[in-house]
Amino acid sequence: MTTSTPFPIGTPGQPWGEEEKAQWLTTTNLKRSYNDDVISKINALKDRFDVAQYGALSFDEARYPQFGIRSRDFDKNKPTILITGGVHGYETSGVHGALQFLDTEALAFTEHFNFIVAPCISPWGYETINRWNPYTVDPNRSFVENSPSQEAANVMAWVNGLGVKIFAHIDLHETTDTDDTEFRPALAARDGKDYEEDTVPDGFYTVGDTDNPNVDFQTAVIDEVRKVTHIAPADATGKIIGTPVEQEGVINYPVKALGLCTGFTDCEYCTTTEVYPDSEKVTDQECNDAQVAAVRGALNYLLAAR
């Protein structure tokens, strides 16, 4: 259904210019601390993993350094797993799920895999609880050449500069109620379009790659996560967020064509997780646990398939 309620910024039907984008930025404010919540946990991993700063956001370089984490004794003969979180900074369990996996389970898998982890790609978005960066750019449509997003460009440069083939990429996300109440309406207004209301999926789902769906791999992720939280059902039309369901809890996107994070490497396996944190059935900790379960399910599948 198309909503007739105008967005408070801009003129209906007209894309935003720089004035409207600046006006939007004034509506944002700091709601939590990247340093206290995230950097402190990254620092606590330094006794077990190699930690490096790979970039910083020019919006405030001192406040928003970007960190990457690698397993020690990196062996290029082992398959390398890339885990990313916080591409959309407001998707909290993506950040803390990645850090929890490193803290609690990663070392048990390092006999078989190398790990490269970027736990919070969008630190400004984390602090302000935003999908966009300060310039109304969505990092997860920006994993392309000459990216308009520093968040995306910096992590791509770091990963590509390591000179390692990525075997599998697991990108940790959330779908929240505010997607429908805040972020999608803002997107429509920014682009001068009418906002089409949609249904927020009630539960966990994954997004695979249309060009390389890896059906059994996605199934393994779903089956492990269902031990922690419920799987999102399809809506009455057989879709999740407007996309046909390929199997329970799985939809596919053309990830490279859309500039999504999982599309910037030529990995053999990829999945984007989508946790639903606004459900009355889950706690914040269970959302983090679901992200860890998704990684665990993916890794156990890859081990069994070798």
Order of helices and strands: HHEEEHHEHHEHEHEEEHEH
What average pLDDT do the residues reach?
Answer: 96
- The parts where pLDDT drops under 50 for at least 5 residues are none
Query: What kind of assembly state do the chains in view correspond to?
Result: single chain
**Which percent range fits the helix content?**
25-40%
Task: Count the DSSP helices.
Answer: 10
CATH architecture: 3-Layer(aba) Sandwich
**CATH 4th-level superfamily:** Zn peptidases
Rg over alpha carbons: 19 Å
Counting structural domains, the number is 1
Strand content: 15-25%
The best one-word shape is globular
Structural class: alpha/beta
> In what order do the strands lie side by side in the largest sheet?
1-2-4-3-5-10-6-9
Span between termini: 47 Å
Which class in CATH terms? Alpha Beta
CATH fold annotation: Aminopeptidase
How many strands in all? 10
Largest sheet: 8 strands, mixed
Describe the structure using short key phrases.
Peptidase_M14; alpha/beta; M14 family metallocarboxypeptidase; 8-stranded mixed β-sheet; Aminopeptidase
Question: What does this protein structure show overall?
Answer:
- It is a single chain.
- The chain has 306 residues and is an alpha/beta fold.
- The protein has a single domain (18-305), classed as Zn peptidases (Aminopeptidase), CATH 3.40.630.10.
- 34% of the residues lie in helices and 18% in strands.
- It contains ten helices and ten strands.
- The strands form two sheets. It has an eight-stranded mixed beta sheet. A two-stranded antiparallel ribbon has the order 7-8.
- A hairpin with an 8-residue loop joins strand 1 and strand 2 (65-71).
- It is globular and about 55 Å long.
